Structures are given as C-alpha cells and as structure tokens.
Fold these 2 entries.
Entry 1:
Amino acid sequence: MNDITARSEQYRGFTISVTPQKDNDDLWDFTYRLQRDGESAAQAITRSRTLGGYAAPETACTAGLEVARTEVDNLLRP
C-alpha cells in the first residue's frame, strides 16, 4: 500500500493528526501530532509509538487516535 496518508480530527480544542508507519516484521505503528487550536505549529506535540505493531495501517491510525485522545484528556485534566 503506497498511498498512506495521515488521519486528522478535532478533539477538545486540539487537532490530532496520526500517520501510520511501517515497522519491523511488516507491522504498522504510528506517529501522532497534537496542536492546540490557535497555537503555532512550533508548539505542537509529536509522539511516536513503536512498541505495538498492527497488521494494517488503518488499525494503526485508529490506535493512534485513541492514544492521542487519551493524552489530550490528561493534558486537560484539572
């Protein structure tokens, strides 16, 4: 699959972008980026996940969105 693109969504005042990445043993992992609405790209948070390993890029994107949402929830925790 050569046409791998990032998935993005708005969540609680952040833009989450997840990009699947090919990892070892033909499995997929992801990188995600969190950018608070109204802040510059230089202030965005970028994380990479290379421990899991998913069979398909779509599954890696779904997992990445879940992890990123959890991080946003933790950032906004009072």
Entry 2:
Amino acid sequence: MALIQAPNSVVMVRPWKFFSNPETAVDNAFQKTSLEKQDSLELDRTGISLQAKNEFDIVVAGLNENGINVHVFDDFGDRETPDSVFPNNWFSTHSGGHVALYPMFSKNRRRERRSDIIEMLKAHYRVQDVIDFSGLEWDNLFLEGTGAMVLDNVNRIAYVAKSNRANEVILERFCTSFQYEPMAFETADATGTAIYHTNVMMCVASKYALICLDMIPNVRRAEVKQRLEESGIEVIELSFDQIDNFAGNAIELTGNGKSHLVMSQRARNALTVDQIASIEQHSKILDFSIPTIELAGGSIRCMIAGIHLSPRT
C-alpha cells in the first residue's frame, strides 16, 4: 500500500538558468522577488543559477543513495522557463497507467510542458492514456497539478486550497476522470492571504499528514481533520511559522523498500522534537539544503513529480 502513496521513482528537472519568476510573484507570498542578495553575498544571475543547479544535484544524489530512482531532465533556459525546477505543477501520473496535463496560471510556466518527459514515461512505464486539461487555459481556468492538489492516493481524496490556481470546475473534472473525492477549502495565512498552492500547507503520507489546520477557517477546519483521521492518518499539526519555512512542502517516497519523508533542511529545522519523533515512527527523514531554490517560492515537494505508474518489464 505504501507504494500507492509513496512512489520509488520520480521526475526532476535540472535548472540551468534559474531566477525568481516575476509572473508568479503576485500571488506567491513565499517567493522572494529579488534573488540578488542571499546570506549577505551579492550574486549575479549566473551565480544564482549555478547555486540552484548545485543544490539540485545534491538532492538527486541523496535520493539515489537511498534507493529512489530519479529521471533527470535538463532545462537549459532556451524557453525562458524560470520555474521549470518545479515540474509537479504541469503533469501528474496515476496508477492504472494514467497521466494528466494541467492548465497553468502564469504564461511562461505553460512553456514548461515538454513532450520528451511524457515520451519517457511511455517508454519506461505502462501508460494507458494522457488526459490533457491544458486547453482550459484559454478559458482562464487553472489547476496546477499536485501543487494545487494534495492527493491521498490510498483513500482517493483530493485536498485543495481554493485559489486562482485551483479552479473548482477543473477539479471536479479531474476527480471524475481519476476517481477522487474533492475536498476543497478556503485558506488564510497570518496576514489573511490565501495560500497559493495546497502543497505548501499540507503533505499527506501513507500513515500521517503534516498540515496547518489554523490556515483553514470556520467549520471546514474540523471537517478536514476529521476526514484525515477517518482515513487512518495521524494528523501532525504545523504552525504558521513552520509553513513559512516550508515544513508542509514535503513528500513521502519509497527507497530500498522503506518510507522516506523528503523535505528541505530549512523545513526540518522548523519542526519540533515531538513532530520529528512522530514522523520517524513511520519514515526516515531526508533533508537537503536548497536555500537558493526556495527563494523562488517552492521547496522540495515542488521539485519532485512522483511516478505512480507500473514499470515495463
């Protein structure tokens, strides 16, 4: 059952011309619009890109060392796609051989979709169909993949923070096509701002979930908690400050037959001793330092597109 939620193979995209995307800064409160200064060091864009690439390579090496298979693709920057290091937003894969392509809010993020990744999936895994929702961009309807949706693949529930990147019309279509129950809710951070992507405020693993329930107002908060607990999932509550440090932006993966929770070093450092102990009852925590990449408003989970497909033999 663990593999249903926590795959052992993933897709990642190595950035060569990385910078903070000005088109996404308007509604991403986690994003730093200026990347010129980091740890008191003045860096030009070339230096920033090199740092991001080095951080990426360390993550890939760490995943491989723990038995997690990583399919790496390169983005050399020829299409001006600064957020390409976050591929989980434009496609997802699902058991039974299904792939989904998603409509993206920012125009320059739409250029991240690439056929070579889909062709690789078809060549190495059993793909039955590719359902393409991306044409809905023309109707200004958006659903940014497993950034907008946090999927409980065992209990078939799609948890979704409502935003302009998570349209409920497409959510219903997705859930009908892929047989999930939609559970959408309003959110607000400490300043009252809605969360731009669900996967920065919650992570669902096989046996536990990290979530900031305080970001969900009104009765819906209790309903989300109840739904998780009814699914047999231990709820580990996160604070506003922990979410600001990307503690919710984690993903469970399987390596060498064991569960690993992958997160950034910044995220792990934000957790309490008790929270770490609760996680480590089920998973080994793998944490990586990615401060440059995190300046773009996403963390480890955003970098990883899980492969929930059966490999070809």
